[in-house]
Automatic annotation (TrEMBL):
InterPro entries: NTF2-like_dom_sf, SnoaL-like
Gene3D superfamilies, sorted: 3.10.450.50
Pfam family for this entry, one: SnoaL_4
Protein known as: Nuclear transport factor 2 family protein
Source organism of the structure: Nocardia rhizosphaerae
Chain ranges of the SnoaL-like domain: 10-127
């Protein structure tokens, strides 16, 4: 059973999850700070790339496939949190990205499973990057669509 928990009881949990989502968006920019991103994931986390390839977060550099955009910004539009238990939450974060190649460049949703840690922080246990669309002239299209 999932719980939306819009009550005061989960206010801190919601705030902590939102902080991780926003930190990820901040670090997923030009010359990405992969070390900072890694701190947002559990040690056993899995990241599923847009092409379906699962990797450990320590290999986040594979996202750019040696063709990183000179400029990228991720903008978050909606964060939907469903608690599936006292220490787990399913989180859908809708985003769009702007690069030096297209605005918007690509858009979609991060489908996450968050886990509450012993210190009460929340970290990403699993993230699937689902890209729902991209500009034909953009970085994502050049990196993922045109090469496939």
């Amino acid at each position: 059973m999932t719980e939306r928990s819009f009550t005061r009881a989960r206010t801190d949990d919601r705030a902590l999850i939102h902080a991780v989502v926003h930190r990820y968006a901040h670090t997923a920019r030009d010359k990405m700070d992969f070390a900072d991103m890694l701190a947002l994931f559990t040690t056993d986390a899995v990241l599923v790339l847009p092409d379906g390839t699962p990797i450990p977060p320590s290999e986040l550099g594979k996202v750019v496939r040696d063709g990183e955009a000179a400029y990228i910004r991720h903008h978050i539009t909606t964060v939907d949190i469903c608690f599936t238990g006292p220490t787990e939450a399913q989180v859908d974060t809708f985003f769009f990205a702007i690069t030096d190649e297209a605005a918007p460049d690509h858009w979609g949703v991060w489908r996450d499973t968050f886990r509450k840690q012993a210190d009460t922080s929340w970290l990403i246990r699993e993230r699937a990057i689902v890209v729902e669309g991209s500009a034909p002239s953009g970085w994502f299209h050049r990196t993922y669509v045109a090469q496939d």
